[in-house]
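fyi for ur records
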Amino acid sequence: MKIFVTGATGFIGSVLVRTLAESGHTVHALFRSRTKTSAIKHKNVRLFKGNILDPKSIERAVSGCHRVFHTAAMTKIWSKNPKRYHDINVIGTKNVLEAALHTGVKKVVITSTAGVFGPSLNGCVNENTIKKTRCFTEYEKTKAQADSLALSYMKKGIHIVMVCPTRVYGPGLIKESNSTTRMIQLYIKGKWRIIPGSGKNIGNYVYIDDVVKGHLLAMEKGHPGEKYILGGENISYSGFFTTLKNVSQKDYTLFKLPLFMMISLSFIMKCLAEGFSVYPLITPEMVKKLTCDWVVSSDKAVRVLGYSPLSLETGIKKTIEWLNTLDSKNI
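which gave:
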């Protein structure tokens, strides 16, 4: 089968492209920079230069395809031009769906985010949770807008399913969308010594292979117009690092970074970013997000799709094994 993938050189997209190609599918991969395509080179991958803000390049790439995975998104924590979030996440999604409509594609899986449901204020969050807070970041805000836009295309005859990953980690490109893996890498090298805040806030961490399998299951079994949270294990920051210490067998002393210090540092970085274009490591919006609990349930995906995520311990073990292979290649 011919399948079109946007965001093909990104963290989730590149693993998805390789998985599809190795399964015998012909993948049409949209890319902006050829230097970033090395991770998806395969005899079954056809490269199409373009981007999701160029409708003509999308139509060329999607032509002849039967399915679409739309993983492309603006995921950066800061941009000098905030309008980029709306352009890429909302207008880009519209362009992809228009191209799918014009070329006769019937099934589309869109990569959203569990962040659109908001933090867990009153128990575990699921797909039916009514969001009671404003979006913390432009990324979450525009992804929620893109989700609403996508549902409107159901009336035009496209079978659309949305998957909502949590904090994804594991082998692959180490960039902002894979920041948890970068944190693991720094820790095992003795270069990470911080626990955010009190360490008690809870997040959900999911291994990359599980997220990709979730995408494939959503394409195969997902119900039209439905969202499925693709999560892993709910755990506090302190619990995460305890698991990391146990798996890596490296017991480094970690220091809790008080909330007031995180806020102060984030405002300084934001000022440097806005005044001198120095890219920030953290923003005030991210601090607010990090100090909330994000307890989620993937029960719907488990029940409907047959989704079965790894434990955090197993996922971290696999990630460290992969990181060690990278180090051995650099010797």
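Residues 188 and 248 are 7 Å apart (CA to CA). thats all i got for now
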